[in-house]
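Hey, quick one: can you model this chain's 3D structure?
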Amino acid sequence: MSPRMRRRIAISVAATSMSVMLAGCGMLNAAESSDDASPAKGDDITVGLLLPEKANTRYEQFDYPIFKTKVESLTDKKGKVEYANAEADAGKQAGQMQQMIDDKVDVIVLDAVDAKAIADGVQKAKDAGIPVIAYDRLAEGPIDAYISFDNALVGEVQGRSLLASLGDDLSITDKIVMMNGSSTDPNAKQFKAGALSELKGKVTIAKSYDTKDWKPENAQANMTEAINAIGADNIAAVYSANDGMAGGIVKALRAAGVTDLPAITGQDAELAAVQRIISGEQYMSVYKSYPDEAESAAEMAVAKVQGRDIQFDALTRDRVDSPTTKDIPAQLVPVVELTKDNVQDTVIADEIYEVADICTAEYKAACAAIKLK
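Sure thing. Here's the predicted structure for all 373 residues.
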């Protein structure tokens, strides 16, 4: 059993024990909520879910369906999820959020395209009495809670893995290209800072880019520029903040005639990235348990609306600060380095993918080589 699962079980047991004790004292509904909290509701609730884009396949493939299923299970299938995806358009997301406010949803779970730009929408929701839980990215404004992965740790894991890929011959003269995420995403800054904490003083950052909208085609263009400036043969490794961009980086290197690819990092354990990892085109990814994150977010949202403060507090034992709000209740979910050595123990064991999904005809030989079957 993973440490993460043990922690969740421990929290659940603690919360259940406390609930039973308070129920015996006739205090189960004596919530210690704030003065402006809305009255507790039953199972007939509407949860708004705003996700940022579709270029990263995780949102449509995992986050939304897992979140929706969990809300339904927590509300005896009486709760609804009103869902919208902004497709990397901050203005579109602002309109989607306003629509949810107008529709008087009971709570909004928000993964912001632009954390700063959405602050006005968060304030409008607050003024309308609708709690907002920041999901995956820490939005600005008066949010009520935050759930994400430990983003600094993600960057550190990527940085350490990249250094390990260079082996015993690691040198400060080794030239690295850094392909960071979008400058409008606060997570990207944390990934970058975590990676730099490992890389600085050990390798040379020859080129570094903040990639607009996290788009693979923008990463490909940036990488082409880096190759022209540095020379393909002089690039020892590439730090890519996520898997989508790693795919664009591979395309740029192949177009430049590179056959022996440098080590390339990633994040999100996308199916195409897992296939690149087993075939040797990508060195690693960071596996993040989307079921843990999405299900915990659903639990937080439902507990918040239903006034179950003990459960909500048990789910938000961490604290984080945004540029506008301090001491935000939070849950930070741990992450795992994914390489060809632990595909079986991560994405397959957690039923994210089946072997058949990964080991298509093109990758059967690579799968056989690591005994993945």
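One thing worth noting: Confidence is low (pLDDT under 50) at residues 1-38.
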